[in-house]
Amino acid sequence: MALGFSSIGRRQWIKALASSAMAAALPVPVLAGAGVPVMRYSARTRRLVERSLVIDMLAPLKLDFRPEAFALRLSADDAAQYRRSGITGFHHSVGVSGPNAHEDVLAYLAAWQGYAGRNPDTFRLVDTAADLDRAKAHGRVALMMGVQNSEHFRTAADVKTFHQLGQRCSQLTYNAQNLLGTGGTERVDSGLSDYGVEIVKAMNEVGMLVDVSHCGDRTTLDAIEVSAKSIAITHSNCRALNNHPRLKTDEAIRKLAAKGGVIGITGVRNFVRDQEPTTVEHMVDHIDHVARLVGIEHVGIGSDADLHGYDDMPADQLKTLRGLYKSSYAFRDKLDTDGFDHPQKIYELTGALIRRGYSDTDIGLVLGGNFRRLLGDVLG
């Protein structure tokens, strides 16, 4: 998710989120969610989504960072939208940086896991990968906690502490340089530092997934080489199709796959295509590229947005986001990809995969089977 808290009142947001964590849970939701009616999709599309374990490996529950938006009460309509989306596993991960990152991530984990715990009829927290299967079996939403940076790790020992507190995935860097390595928008990539190597090894030991989505090219390759376990690119696309520094080279994708890793294809418009139109069909171009390059077993989905996408964010926040990330988002009219910008976007993507000629088995792998395998290997 391309949003750094330090520039939009991070500490105000964290404090509001934590202080509202005592909100009571609502009754079991029964209302239908908004969005495109599911019945408009083909029977094959509906069947595939309904029977698949769908995992979105970058899917924050809500892209509204105003403090007043976090009463942490789950509305019946919101709960219904999560269920009707067809997505079982949401990797809830945000970027936290700055001198108070340690404290802020503690508050973030406490607030969101408390939120899930007070709404047990809707959510199930992910401890091990088997919790994804249990959530699917019981019609719940699996919530896996992650952080899109690792600045909150003050020492390698902190990795175990945060794992015990519920964190299951950590991106090594955000866009900029940190003590571990180099982010994707830096001019010079110095690679993974000695301290970064320590952190990766500590993550391997406790069973925390290493993510290099925002890392620079050299840092990405170093992390793949150093890690004893498979790692992930949870939300990026293929630079061979769209020359953008936040996207991954064929070399990185090959080396990731050689060690069992998976790349999640994102629906952020500028990362999908550099010209109009930009539709869900162009997302499938990236899936095609990975499948041809390294095999269908190494590609999945990482939306990098909530169910509604960036373009439904409050106008002031969207304006701030565009200003902060000109290099990533340029000046397109939209940030979301057409067709992948509403709560039933997984049905849209599944339909596009069907039109492209993929088998039911391969579609199941893309929708979540590949990330389920990776999470099983890493989380235990």
From TrEMBL:
SUPFAM superfamilies: Metallo-dependent hydrolases (SSF51556). The keyword Hydrolase applies. PROSITE patterns: RENAL_DIPEPTIDASE_2, TAT. Keywords: Dipeptidase, Hydrolase, Protease. One of its GO terms (molecular function) is dipeptidase activity. It comes from the Bacteria. The keyword Glycoprotein does not apply. Its EC number is 3.4.13.19. Pfam families: Peptidase_M19 (PF01244). This is Membrane dipeptidase. It comes from Lysobacter niastensis. The lineage of its organism: Bacteria, Pseudomonadati, Pseudomonadota, Gammaproteobacteria, Lysobacterales.
